[in-house]
Design goal:
By secondary structure, the chain is α+β, with helices and mostly antiparallel strands. Helices cover 13% and strands 33% of the residues. The chain has two helices and 13 strands; from the N terminus they run ββαβββαββββββββ. The strands form three sheets. It has a seven-stranded antiparallel β-sheet with strand order 1-2-11-8-13-6-3, with helices on one face. It has a four-stranded antiparallel β-sheet with strand order 7-12-9-10, with no helix packed on it. Bound molecules: N-(carboxycarbonyl)-S-(naphthalen-2-ylmethyl)-L-cysteine and fe (iii) ion. The site of N-(carboxycarbonyl)-S-(naphthalen-2-ylmethyl)-L-cysteine (MD3) has 15 residues, from β6, β8, β11, β12 and β13. InterPro entries: Alkb, AlkB-like, AlkB-like_sf, Oxoglu/Fe-dep_dioxygenase_dom. Keywords: Dioxygenase, Iron, Metal-binding, Oxidoreductase. One of its GO terms (molecular function) is broad specificity oxidative DNA demethylase activity. Its cofactor is Fe(2+).
Length: 203
């Protein structure tokens, strides 16, 4: 049962749990050829979250900046295709949240080990902010922070569990957000990690 967290932002609690095995198999296949790695921010810091991508475009960061590109800078080969099950899950979630015709061309795979976090930021590297972003949480839980359109705005905290899907569109698309440091734990599927899949229309 979807509920609106904030105008344009929808939570679909647990809807990915029944697809978790297929999503996990897809993650494994992608990271076999395009390993998870810790990217460096333009400021020179190593990100605590390890990342890889699938789809036509992948999100990367280095000294030159944040951007999407078709080739993995580590392997210098194109990102693997988005597994069909990933695509279907993302499109169906967007539809259930009232965003029909979502066509994701990028899927970022984030892996959080205990202590890994994502500081408050906006997702602004996409060409078209009219498309929503779909995010799928797997494994260990996390506390998500949702701010406003300005960095100093009050932050709302939200607990994210295995199988939860969030859809961010319309007036929520450019809100600041982050993930608090993940606590140590064990999950039957993902072991000592939290994984997040983020589907976007980048081009
Ligand atoms: C809220 N990842 O990769 S996805 C990211 O759990 C990122 O790994 C987080 O933020 C994670 O950029 C959260 C959820 C998300 C994505 C886009 C948003 C939340 C958002 C855009 C606007 C508001
Ligand atoms: Fe983000």
């Amino acid at each position: 049962t979807p509920y609106e967290i904030a105008p344009g932002a929808w939570a679909l609690p647990g809807i990915a749990s029944t697809h978790a095995d297929a999503l996990w198999a897809g993650i494994h296949k992608v990271i076999q050829s395009h390993p998870l790695r810790h990217l460096v921010t333009p400021g020179g810091s190593r990100m605590s979250v390890a990342m890889s991508n699938c789809g036509d475009l992948g999100w990367v960061s280095d000294e030159a900046g944040y951007r999407y590109q078709g080739t993995d800078p580590l392997t210098q080969t194109p990102w693997p295709a988005m597994p069909e099950g990933f695509r279907e899950m993302a499109i169906s979630a967007a539809e259930q949240a009232g965003y029909p015709a979502f066509e994701p061309d990028a899927c970022l795979i984030n892996r959080y080990a205990p202590g890994a976090r994502m500081t408050l930021h906006q997702d602004k590297n996409e060409r078209d902010y009219s498309a929503p972003i779909v995010s799928v949480s797997l494994g260990l839980p996390a506390v998500f922070e949702l701010g406003g359109l300005e960095r100093g705005d009050k932050v709302q905290r939200l607990s994210l569990q295995h199988g939860d899907v969030l859809v961010w569109g319309g007036p929520a698309r450019l809100r600041f957000h982050g993930v608090r440091a993940v606590d140590p734990g064990q999950h039957l599927l993902t072991g000592a990690h939290r994984f997040n899949l983020t589907f976007r229309k980048a081009a």
